[in-house]
Amino acid sequence: MALLDVEELSVTFARRNQRTVRAVDGVSFSVDAGEVVGLVGESGCGKSVTSLAIMGLLPRQPGVQVGGKAVFDGTDLLQIDDRSRRDIRGRDIAMIFQDPLSSLNPVVPIGIQVTEVLTRHRGMKGQAAAKEAAQLLDRVGIPDPKRRLKEYPHQLSGGMRQRALIAMAVACQPRLLIADEPTTALDVTIQAQILELLKELVRDSGTALVMITHDLGVVAGMCDTINVLYGGRVVETARRRPLFRQPRHPYTVGLLSSVPRLDAGRGERLNPIPGSVRDLLPWPDGCAFAPRCARRVDACVGEPPELVLTHDGRSYRCVNPAPVPGLTPGEDVREVVPGQATPGSVPAQAVPNDPPAVPGLAAAPSEEETS
Amino acid sequence: MIRFIVRRLLQLIPTLFGLSILLFIWLRRLPGGPETAILGERGTPEMRAAIRQNLGLDEPILIQYGRFVRRMIRLDLGTSISTKREVTTEFIQRFPGTVELTITAMVIAIGIGIPLGYLAARRRGRFLDHASVGGSLIGICIPVFFLAYILKAIFSENLGWFPSSGRQDPTLGATRITNFFVLDGLMTREWDAAADALWHLILPGLALASIPLAIIVRITRASVLEVLNEDFVRTAEAKGLTENVVRRRHVLRNAMLPVATSIGLLTGGLLSGAVLTETVFAFSGIGAFLAEAIDHRDYPVLMGFIMIIAIVYVLVNLIVDLSYSLIDPRVRVR
Amino acid sequence: MTIISGKKREKIDRLAELAARDEERGVSLWQDAFRRLRRNPAAIVGAIILIVFVLVALVGPFFVPYGPKDTMGIREGVVKVGQGLIPGPSAEHWLGYDHQGRDVFSRMIVGARQTLLVGVVATMIGLAIGALIGGVAGAAAGLGGRWGRWVDTTLMRFIDMLLAMPSLLLAVSIAALLGPSLITVMIAVGMVSVPVFARLLRGSMIAQSNSDYVLAATSLGVRKSKIALSHVLPNSLAPVIVQATLTLATAIIEAAALSYLGLGNPDSATPEWGVMLADAQPWLGIRPALAIYPAVAIIITALGFTLLGEAMREALDPKLRK
Amino acid sequence: MRASRPKVAIAAVAAAALAVAGCAESDREGSSGSSKDTLVFGVAGDPKVLDPSFASDGESLRVARQVFETLVRPEEGGTKVSPGLAESWEPDAAGTTWTFKLRSGVKFHDGTDFNAEAVCVNFDRWYNAKGLMQSPDVTAYWQDVMGGFAANESDTLGESLFKSCSVTDPTTVALTFSRVSSKIPAALMLPSFSMHSPKALQEHDASNVSGSADDIKYPAYATEHPTGTGPFKFKAWDIANKTLTLERNEDYWGDKAKLKSLIFKTISDENARKQELRSGGIQGYDLVGPADVEPLKSEGFNVLTRPAFNILYLAINQKGNPKLADLKVRQALAHAINRQALVDSKLPPGAQVAVNFFPDTVEGWNGDVTKYEYDVEKAKSLLAEAGASDLKLRFHYPTEVTRPYMPNPKDLFELLSADLQAAGITIEPIPLKWSPDYLNATTSGNKHDLHFLGWTGDYGDGYNFIGTFFDRQKDEWGFNNPALFEKFKTADSTADQAARVALYKELNADIMNFLPGVPISHSPPAIVFGKDVTGVKASPLTDERFSSAEFKS
């Protein structure tokens, strides 16, 4: 039983006299206690919306439709009432946002912004709260926390701000932490530090982490399982190593090959994915990625591609996946779920973190494991 | 902080100087002159000449201006030509009325405007929102004096709920100390007098409040809407804070910034409104008095009053700046 | 037009590309603003009110049943204000007579034209002077340098002084200074809006001059004055236009206020709503309608301008666009 | 901490307020619960000064009339000279010395006796005015009537009509004048000749009009301690509340005032006054708009109409436009305007078209003078004869002002100019603010061709009307008619009443033939009182006596 089970999550924005937008279209994935899961995709693929939907932070306006399930140990977050959702937020599930400056209230001292969580969820007040807050800041590596408590966001550096935000997030040792592009707004050196910080936090607190990013580098650094999103659906799910070694979905391939790599030979050029996220095909009429896809075939268009589960416990949504050298296409296919069904329904930990180095031998062991 | 205030006060000086010059030129350019105002129907040209001479109106402008400035510095604004009383006395007598009126108007405007604006923003697109936005539009578009008249006709002439003019029922013979009637009433424990004075403030207060109220509603609504999609509000929500805390600490406090500035800018408008409101309600304040002064070409009064209003106006803005720097730590007060 | 050396022409061409991109953004901005306007019901209402108002003002006067100055009621002896007699609406006189025995309906129609005239001219005056001051200040600030800053600050100090004067007081002062006349009203009301326009234009010009394409132009070494004139100014106009629409509303109201204080257009034979409203005061006791007609007309018109103005502001405001 | 800051502030303020409250004690005797003995009367403006010697504005005089008394005063509700503080009076043979027999047992508000001594103190005070007290805006009425002082300090002043005052015995006083004048004794009814308590004058240094030239300061007496013999005493002047309170003079020599206190409340706007009356805040007001007379009556308010004691005229300036020097043209103007229509439509009931320059209530009114009936054709032909068919005239008119004789000048102007245009005259309208612009422009220089103006009589003598207008060359009219001026001199210096009246009759006839301007109308100003207020009698001189006012139960 996973800590968080997201099933068929869909979010649509209906605006007056404009066509409704399906930002998230049947995303499913699951997170286990203490696991680090990545949601990867270009901006606009629905990563952030997904996280907001789970947190119930989407604007409460007529026209915003949320469907599906998000079960957090037993309770469906999408069903519960506002009050109990507020109780869960910040205590059981915490979130870290992209832009630390705009995510902090400019006119309230850091201290209060930290202590208010403690007061809300741990009923701490006055001195006690202040003391705890100081410790938290110290824990996230903010020097001279006592003074910082009194300072305002604009007096802190970018990194400091993000640390402060993290401090607030982990203030109640949540069981799940959602980090939405936590490092994008920071410069590289800081990025590394923040990632380190997050890593050790989840390590020693056993907090599960959902890492939302467009940056495969980040994912490679820390995620156990990775879900690649495109056009509001998960198009491929796999453990970290296999995904990087053997991407199957052309989109994943594209993403990987558009990341500069040190080990790339000289002269070898980056080949970015043509076009942009905007020109996608609505899933019902085929594979959303088809318009940009290098491996497009006629079958791509017409009906949504089926979800393919492989013997090595991965899943992808493609009719013409990137071939695995030495395997005839479809050879490793274990099961095919019809288009409407969800990827990632394979319990991720059932998948060995290290698939056999030799593709040829892959089929057999994985079979045993799955049985 | 202190240095900031001092600097701002120093900045006043050139403004006031320029203003006094503008005023002076303006006053001299006015057609006619005080002499006829004094004489009325009975004036013969000879008498007028005599008065011009008496009033020193035919001395060189510079000398007259010099005299004026010397006076200003001694805060002696001269004597009103029409009432023959010291302008400062007049001011002490009448300004409290306007202050009371303005404060009432502001209390009404802020007290109703901010909550209404906030609710409108939260219920965006619902009835309350449309109602308050529409209402505020009309509030801006209706001529103050007409509104004032309507209020009077309805609430005092027909329903008789409120007195239709003046600051207090003269038959009470209330004691005067500061000329802030409400305050006086409280200080002398003449509760009935205080209540009566307050009662007299409500209708004109409403009339005067119409425009600021409208503006505050709109600004509050706009800025709350803006703040509501700010990231830090989302953060606050993500922390699971109670609606109450989110509203107070995170939404309102930030939304207040633009409102604070607008309030400062509104005072100028309020003083204009006072001219009309006070005239309609025969309310003894500087607004009505200014209108009279212009009728009578009452130079000293005009000079003094406009200067004082300018000072008050600038001071109010100073206060707003200070309050602003209190709400918003990013604004450094140096 | 100065002759420009080849080198320079080349520079300006390169700049033109940059600017062109911006222009095209500008165009789309207008189109897209217009699209948003069409979708905004408030804008529609406002527009309709204005169209009706302008139509009435322009063609109405040719179709009025009676001369707006014809004191027929007194000639026929039906209007006796001395005895409180002012006949109300009738078949011949749809809105009845006024205190001078004139046909109110005709006066309302003709008054629309006068009112529009006052509003427009006043706004034009305010805009012209304000734009001049603000433009110069903004350009000066843009040019920078000791002189630039000096000019800027001096002008703004002056504007601040105007701002320090309560608007009505300013108008009253000017009206008292020039003596009552139609022109006076226009100037007085116009002056009130001068500081607003000045600040607005200066503000947006400075904002503009920090914008990318200006920086680009500067980096290409184009003369700053040229940038200010050929790019900053034109691109600063959007907010000014919006403000002008809003000012029209206040202008009409301010004009009415002046009339009320007896500083309006003294020639009340020529109908103007503000004057009519003010003139009706003595007769409120016997025929409040005389005040209500023009008052309502003023409110509705002002409403029209405000609605449209606000809508335009929203449509053009990049912040509200998302 | 941040949050608590305001609280602290509030606490501080509260504390301060209380502290002050401690020392500030209510100094009013138990607030007059039943206001049935208190009348609040709405007036159009604040009084300027409480010493009528320095006053020329109606509101100051209204107050003075309740607090002070004069030697002779108009009969109640009339203009005839009747006993005031003097029971009787008579001129000597020469008509230059007048002996007044004074009422005995009269006391000033400060308890001192009123007697011949006091009378002389007062007259000497005015006569010996020095410095700023001679400035035309301080002692306007004295200068208007007497023309000068003991020692004139300005060359614009002439020889004083008043010469000396002598005490015959405590109740007999003699006033000597430099010449015979129509003004005596009528002019002595003017409030400006009120009797003040010598003691009070002394104490409060009443004649010390101080300050520098361009800011005249009145002595305390004139603003805080007016002390007369009238039925009401001055109590308080609350500028902050625009109210002036008088209280009953308990030891008044005559019938004591029925009201315990009388409050004048300033409400400058006409509608505001009406609304306040309706909402019960005031129990009466003056300057009722003509249009409100009927409605108020029908609502049951006591609307009193004063006998018309004024004149509205169309002034013609013969200097302004040479054509106007031609009698025919002036006659044309007179025929061109429809005065009847104007009176019917614009003026309150009881208004009449004027045939003389003063109303028929004044002795010397002359019914058979040349009348100029409304006749456009005649006007046109007259203009043609005079070769002035293309006449173009500058017509001045005042904006936003109401005068008892012209409720709404703008309206009147529109009617008249319409009439004149109908007769083929081109009108250039020149609207000006009443004070000072209009009065400046029309009474000086020669920029004006036509304008209207009027006059409310000060006392019941013809000279006060036509004399004021025509007894010498004036910029307002711009004509020089020595014969006329001469006749005025004789009239003024004719001691015998009957003879003088006869001269007035002639003068009226002459004037209407010479037609320096066109008399338009006499209109009765109205004053209104609450439904349950009775006892006040309307006076043509606006000399209403509030002492007789009472609330009928």
From TrEMBL, chain A:
SUPFAM superfamilies linked: P-loop containing nucleoside triphosphate hydrolases
GO MF: ATP binding
Record-annotated ABC transporter domain positions: 6-256
Membrane topology field: Peripheral membrane protein
Subcellular location field: Cell membrane
Region (Disordered): 327-371
Keyword Disulfide bond: no
Keywords, in A-Z order: ATP-binding, Cell membrane, Membrane, Nucleotide-binding, Transport
NCBIfam families linked to this entry: oligo_HPY
Protein name per Swiss-Prot or TrEMBL: Dipeptide/oligopeptide/nickel ABC transporter ATP-binding protein
Lineage: Bacteria, Bacillati, Actinomycetota, Actinomycetes, Micromonosporales
TrEMBL record, chain B:
Topology of this chain in the membrane: Multi-pass membrane protein
Family matches, as CDD domains: TM_PBP2
The keyword Secreted belongs to this UniProt entry's keyword annotation: no
Transmembrane region(s): 9-27, 101-121, 133-155, 197-217, 257-290, 302-327
InterPro entries: BPD_transp_1_N (IPR045621), MetI-like (IPR000515), MetI-like_sf (IPR035906)
Source taxon at top rank: Bacteria
Pfam families in alphabetical order: BPD_transp_1 (PF00528), BPD_transp_1_N (PF19300)
Keyword Membrane: yes
Similarity comment: Belongs to the binding-protein-dependent transport system permease family.
Protein name: Peptide ABC transporter permease
Species in which this protein is naturally found: Micromonospora lutea
From TrEMBL, chain C:
Keywords associated with the record: Cell membrane, Membrane, Transmembrane, Transmembrane helix, Transport
Main location as per UniProt: membrane
Gene3D superfamilies reported for this sequence: MetI-like (1.10.3720.10)
Membrane topology: Multi-pass membrane protein
Stored PROSITE patterns: ABC_TM1 (PS50928)
Residue span(s) of domain ABC transmembrane type-1: 112-309
Subcellular location field: Cell membrane
Pfam family, one: BPD_transp_1
Transmembrane segments: 42-64, 116-143, 155-176, 182-201, 240-263, 291-312
Keyword Transferase carried by entry: no
Domain of life the protein comes from: Bacteria
Family: Belongs to the binding-protein-dependent transport system permease family.
Protein name, as recorded: ABC transporter permease
Organism: Micromonospora lutea
Source lineage: Bacteria, Bacillati, Actinomycetota, Actinomycetes, Micromonosporales
UniProtKB/TrEMBL annotation, chain D:
Keywords: Signal, Transport
Signal sequence range: 1-26
Residue ranges of domain Solute-binding protein family in the record: 80-474
Homology family: Belongs to the bacterial solute-binding protein 5 family.
Stored PANTHER family: OLIGOPEPTIDE-BINDING PROTEIN APPA, PERIPLASMIC BINDING COMPONENT OF ABC TRANSPORTER
Recorded superkingdom: Bacteria
Gene3D superfamilies, A to Z: Dipeptide-binding Protein, Domain 1, Dipeptide-binding Protein, Domain 3, Periplasmic binding protein-like II
Protein name per Swiss-Prot or TrEMBL: ABC transporter substrate-binding protein
Pfam family, one: SBP_bac_5
Keyword Nucleotidyltransferase: no
Signal listed as a keyword: yes
